[in-house]
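Action item from last meeting closed. Structure (391 res):
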């Protein structure tokens, strides 16, 4: 019962993250379900869907198909659609019902590929994990399949990859273009931006980069994979406001070859606290930028979604579920909260009198309710937002 949602909607699940990471690449995405999960993804977790030409389908799973495990019907439908659409790849994603019957997605993908000749993927998503898990699976699978093989010698490496860009974290106002321009205007070449503004051709070049810049938690596992397979180191952090902090850190590595990760500011007794709740990496970066401008306030990062213990900094809080979030918000420890607008529903009447709330839309939480109100993490809008974080 710890995952029970009373005030907040369920956060975006793994199949939405997986589909989101594949959305722009010209492939055919098939969600294996009876249309509910497909509708959930397209209607509530994918702000790019309206007006797009991406191929996203539902397998049309029915009760007897699930009971009898009728995989041939799914395979035949996928092959028929692929012959007509000629996608660059095919991806079959899972959902809760086929999870129960143990559907072999990778086996189906192998059979589809053997019959069509089109690269095919099977992702055992279940709808039980958060979206970052699905994004990581998709990005890693794409790298395994399409990136150049072998380790590139150090002297031939060039540029960076940006990993963890997704509309579920950053909205759909093309902030990826601003972040790519931020680095390239500073003389830093960007080879690939996973999973917004990328292409299969860019993924092919990604293995020859000198550094991976992980801008959200969903990119951590992919960056670890690339470090192990290709020897590419990574740093975590999101460009916020003017982006200067991250540009300086990336430049420092490219010039010296050594990593200098950010260090959280020391806690000073007596300072008022503001909790920033959201993605682990984004919230931390917002805290870093906000504390630089408001040194009289202590900003504390709270993670609502997936959490990496290895990448955690001192003082960060893992908020495992809505119950913990509600207790933290109403604990009296914080004088302010930065979170999705729906988080205000967690306040008690007493907290509403004492705590200042700063709404910051998060697609993974409130979906289409506020996704048009999202603020680009980079630029004047975020600068103005941070400047108002006073209590």
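Sequence:
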């Amino acid at each position: 019962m710890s995952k029970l949602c009373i005030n907040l909607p369920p956060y975006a699940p793994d199949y939405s993250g997986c589909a989101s990471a594949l959305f722009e690449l010209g492939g055919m995405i098939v969600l294996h379900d009876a249309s509910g999960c497909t509708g959930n993804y397209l209607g509530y977790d994918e702000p790019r869907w309206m007006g797009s030409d991406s191929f996203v389908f539902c397998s049309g799973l029915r009760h007897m198909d699930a009971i009898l495990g009728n995989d041939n019907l799914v395979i035949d439908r996928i092959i028929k659609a692929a012959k007509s659409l000629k996608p660059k790849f095919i991806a079959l994603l899972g959902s809760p019902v086929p999870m129960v019957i143990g559907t072999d997605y990778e086996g189906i993908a192998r059979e589809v590929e053997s019959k069509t000749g089109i690269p095919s993927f099977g992702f055992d998503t279940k709808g039980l994990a958060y979206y970052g898990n699905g994004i990581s699976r998709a990005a890693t699978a794409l790298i395994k399949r399409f990136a150049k093989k072998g380790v590139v010698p150090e002297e031939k490496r060039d540029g960076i990859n940006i990993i963890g860009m997704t509309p579920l974290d950053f909205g759909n106002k093309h902030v990826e273009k601003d972040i790519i321009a931020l680095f390239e205007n500073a003389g830093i070449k960007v080879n690939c931006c996973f999973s917004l503004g990328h292409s299969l051709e860019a993924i092919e070049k990604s293995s020859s980069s000198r550094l991976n810049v992980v801008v959200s938690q969903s990119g951590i596992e992919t960056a670890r994979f690339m470090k192990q397979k290709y020897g590419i180191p990574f740093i975590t952090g999101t460009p916020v406001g003017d982006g200067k902090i991250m540009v300086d850190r990336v430049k420092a590595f490219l010039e010296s070859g050594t990593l200098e990760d950010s260090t959280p500011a020391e806690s000073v007794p007596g300072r008022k606290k503001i909790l920033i709740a959201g993605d682990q990496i984004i919230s931390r970066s917002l805290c870093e930028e906000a504390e630089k401008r408001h040194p009289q306030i202590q900003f504390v990062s709270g993670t609502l979604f997936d959490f990496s213990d290895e990448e955690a900094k001192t003082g960060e809080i893992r908020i495992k579920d809505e119950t913990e979030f509600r207790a933290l918000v109403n604990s009296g420890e914080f004088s302010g909260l930065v979170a999705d607008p729906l988080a205000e529903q967690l306040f008690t009447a007493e907290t509403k009198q004492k705590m200042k709330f700063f709404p910051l839309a998060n697609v993974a939480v409130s979906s289409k309710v506020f996704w048009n109100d999202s603020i680009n993490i980079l630029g004047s809008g975020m600068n103005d937002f941070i400047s108002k974080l006073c209590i």
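Note appended to the action item: Residues 131-146 form the longest helix (16 residues).
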